[in-house]
Amino acid sequence: MRRPFRVLLCLAATALGFTTLSAPAYAAAENYVALGDSYSSGVGTGGTYSGGSCKRSTNAYPRLWANTHAPASFNFIACSGAKTADVLNSQVSALSASTSLVTISIGGNDAGFVDVITTCTLGSDSTCTNRVNQAKTFAQNELPARLDNVYNQIKQRAPSARVVVLGYPRFYKVPGSCSVGLSDTKRSAINSGADTLAQVTAARVAAAGFTFVDIRNAWTGHEICSGDLWLNSLTWPVEESYHPNKNGQARGYLPALTAITG
Hints:
Helices cover about 50% and strands about 10% of the residues. It contains ten helices and five strands, in the order αβααβαβαααβαβαα. Strands 2-1-3-4-5 form a five-stranded parallel sheet, with helices on both faces. The longest helix has 27 residues, at about 1-30.
């Protein structure tokens, strides 16, 4: 009975050896391209940015993922201020048949993110609500075709890639403990805009056969006016406002992406 026992031990050891070797081999074969806007480039995390006006941060989730997974190649193309047209005109060219992983956040700037925040900060409750409703109408009626164009281009240029589309968080805790800032009416309106954007994006991602990461639940308890912010409120420099901070990237986006990619 000892000989079969030894054989079993050898087989087990061999299987374990193959398992141990396969994970690094798979990671080393990953060719990762990170597309998208400022939520992917890492604006809001402070420090020094690269890529000129694209403001790519070493604290952004694509860079953090690459640091921990050591892919065979990593192309960080995400750019602050990007809209769907910018992805089509200057980002998707980085994709190829060898690309095996693509991440992207896009659509917020198309829907007028900056103008919504500005209007709600400076205007009345009704002015804010009206502007958010305009953004929601755009997201429901015009954004789907724009997203489809982006996703179709990604599929054509990187047909074998896993494509992960990451959404945007709700901005505010309502009611929250902010001593100053926007009213609960404005906060609720802005959050409803984020919900509409998530719903529209999720539908188009599903139609494309990609994976959508809804970040809203992970962000619960970490919105502006909560006790543990993962999102900047109005801050300096102003362009850092209403963007994920270091914790938002490292504790919000990175774990969500890692849960999908393994």
